[in-house]
Amino acid sequence: MKRRNNKPLVVKEEISDDNAKLPCFNGRVVSWLVLAEGSHSDTASQGAESHAELPPALERTGGIGDSRPPSFQ
Fold first, then answer.
1. How far apart are CA 1 and CA 9, in angstroms?
2. Phi and psi at residue 29, to the nearest 5°
3. Residue 43 phi, psi dihedral angles, 5° rounding
4. What pLDDT, on a 0 to 100 scale, did the predictor assign at position 49?
5. Are 31 and 22 in contact (CB under 8 A)?
6. Which of 5, 34, 37, 67 could form a disulfide with 24 if both were Cys (CB 3.0 to 4.6 A apart)?
7. What is the per-residue pLDDT across 12-71, written as a single tens digit (0 to 9) for each?
């Protein structure tokens, strides 16, 4: 979304469903991660040890590829 002066507007939407399609604009995913309330982050130690705590990533099967313009496929 843009204003008349071409400055982008920010629209925030929380996505908690792993099967939800991601928001796209011009064929690109528009999203970012934010720290959840009550959680702590140590930006100095974001190495392999921080990834060891995470469960394996779920494969998303829809959304991104479905929303691309025909020229990208």
1. 6
2. -70, 130
3. -65, -20
4. 47
5. yes
6. 67
7. 777 778 888 877 878 887 777 777 777 666 654 454 444 456 556 555 555 555 555 556
Distances (CA, A) of 20 to 4, 60, 63, 71: 31, 9, 8, 24
Q: 67 with 24: CB under 8 angstroms?
A: yes
Nearest to 50 by CA among 61, 37, 38, 41: 41
Q: What is the pTM of this model?
A: 0.28
How many Å apart are CA 27 and CA 20, to the nearest integer? Answer: 16
What span, in angstroms and rounded, lies between the C-alpha atoms of 16 and 35?
Answer: 14
